Amino acid sequence: MQSSPLVTSRYTSISDRRKEVDVVRRELKAIIDAQPTQIRPEDREGYIKALIDDLKDDEASTWLSWPDDIYLLALTALKSLSRNPVGSTGLAGSKSLETLIHHTGLSSPAPSPSSSVAPSIPESAPALEALRVLANVLVLHSEGRENLAALDGGRLIARSLANSNEEVGTALLFLLGRVGFLVTVQRSDVVRDMVDKDGLVGSLVYFMLAIPLVPANYDTLSEVLKLVGNVLRFYPYPASGEPDPWDDKLDPLLWPLLYLLHSLPQVNPTPPLSHVLHALLLVPFSSSLLSTWRSIPEPPSPTPSSSSVRALLNKVKLSSPPRKSTSISDTPGGSFIRNKSPSPSPPSIPPSPPVLRKRPITLPGRKTFPAALPARVLRVFEGFVDTYYPFPRGWDEEVKGLKVDEILPPILLLLVRIAQGCMEFRTWLRDNLLPKNLDRSKEAGPLESRRGVLGDLLRLMQCATHPSSRDTAGELLWAICDSNPSTLNKEIGYGNAAGLLFRKGISGPPQATIEELSPDPDPHPDSDREEEEEDQEQDRNPITALKASREGDDLQNMSDAEKEKEAERLFVLFDRMDKNPIISAKTGQGSNAKSVKEAIRDEMERKAGNKEDEQEEEEEEEEQEEMRRKEEEDEQEALRDLEAYRRRKSGK
Question: Is the pTM for the entire model greater than 0.85?
Fold first, then answer.
């Protein structure tokens, strides 16, 4: 049965909404319980306008006469109305946002210049509902994000994060992180003020380390990490010639991110781990940060010690100007504060506190272990493959609801940056993906058909369904091979590397490398082993990177049908190369130049002609042999006849 539509007049026609609280309660519940299609856009606009008017920041406002439950119902009704983008644009206006900000409790604890009404405590139920309305508006309306930024909404969020103590609820922290993320999207000026004036970096460091790493807190941690990502992405870095611009004010963010990377128990790239990976992509491997990149967290000590975290937060405070203390959480009153007090002079944005936390936390110790970072990120890649593309499932097979090109590239790109950023990281990756003792025998099968990370990457490089993942997989192997096409071909074979090299504009066989001989006449202690390794490398098939056959030409072991099939495949390949405007596979020079296909055809015709000549010679030899055999038989028969004649004659 279809419900009757709700119209604005049901609410606005209430003669005195201050006193007729039962009627107001009933209508507000009707709005909350209404189906999405039960309220037309024009009625949604009317409801929003009426509710905002009742909730305005004014000492004569209607909401001041309501009991606590109706006050909360009014904000909940606004939350329901804000979920639909059609008809809710009125909430994105500056006046509506000012009203919502007042009820979130994020503004100054002192009354506004237009009234003597104090705001709610930020963690009260009405304040949380107002924050949810604000978050809905920012998600659905870009105008709302612009207007909130103009109202210094970013700084209000930064202040609230800085003033929160260790008892802050995860619901409030979740909403502060979400609103902070939305108000900082594409807004460098907002991020700059939050970092430089309100100590946002220190607040983010605190919460990344303080939030318990249990699944119940993953959503909250994800919102905090999304705000961290925006800070790293949109902070206005000073102009420099560096490929990765950076400001040392953000240095303290790296260690908590690495702590989360190593401490989260996840092996799949799902939130919050995926947000950690995205944030780490934005941190450079500079000389000043390299020691941090090479470290891992040790288990925290059993006795709390705040010296290390205090040193970290002091570093943050030194980059910000001195600030006076104002704590929103110190606002007097009950859970829903609507008391009246004398109106002071017009306040500005409340000043930041001198200390970031009431209770310092223990920063985990660290130890240097260069293999930890690449090993952890590589394990995330393995976890994804084991979950969605276990061997021997092909990469071109679709998994319903899974967007591979949105999940894998950040993981692989981080591995690329790891390999490029530090020689130790690159060496570890190469030793584990392309070890010197890798079984390159034909019996073990082609490299791209094997189980393991190397096989997964090589198969991904041939995938047509996920081009971004394909390209980043190739970039990883390119990076660990020192960005050298000869090394890449030697390690994985030209058959696997051809696509990547073509996309890089590298065609044809790899150039030979010339190594300078050591002037030291004394043999190196490891010279015999190195020469043996070089011999093994030179003994590889350039196409497959497997050991070359020592049993002679492989064609000798092929049947005629297999030879014909291989010839057809080569003709198709060279035909495609001839038609390619970039690659022209030819042999010879000048007027004698021929396409490879023509050269092969001529060679096959020549061999075919030679084969016919050989066949004629064989037939002629067989005829001569047959004639000799018949002559011998005739001679033997003549001798037998002569002997028989002699016996008959002697018997007479």
Answer: no
Q: Would residue 646 count as lying in a domain?
A: no
484 and 420 co-located in one domain: yes
List alpha helices for 273-422, DSSP H.
273-280, 290-293, 307-318, 372-388, 404-421
In contact, 281 and 414? CB cutoff 8 Å: yes
Whether 214 and 330 map to the same domain: the answer is yes
Contact between 277 and 269 under an 8 Å Cβ cutoff? The reply is: yes
Within a 10 A sphere around the Cβ of 471, how many other Cβ atoms?
A: 19
SS3 content of the chain, % helix, strand, coil (to 5): 60, 0, 40
The answer to whether the CB of 191 falls within 8 A of the CB of 231 is yes
Please indicate, yes or no, whether residues 316 and 180 belong to a single structural domain of this protein.
yes
How does pLDDT run across 227-268, given as a tens digit for each residue?
A: 999 999 999 988 777 788 899 999 999 999 999 999 999 999
Cα 99 to Cα 512: distance, rounded to the nearest angstrom = 72
Q: Which long-range contacts (CB under 8 A, 24 or more apart) does 237-245 make?
A: 242/284, 242/286, 244/284, 244/285, 244/286
Q: Is 599 strand, coil or helix?
A: helix
| Residue 553 belongs to a domain | no
- Number of alpha carbons in the 13 Å side-chain half-sphere of residue 618: 6
List beta partners, residue 296.
367
284 domain-assigned = no
Closest-CA residue to 371 (of 418, 338, 332, 330) = 418
* 399 and 487, same domain (yes or no): yes
Specify whether 353 is located in the same domain as 223.
Answer: yes
Q: Which residue range forms the structural domain that includes residue 224? A: 157-238+245-263+302-338+349-367
Tens-place pLDDT, residues 148-186: 999 999 999 999 999 875 567 899 999 999 999 999 999
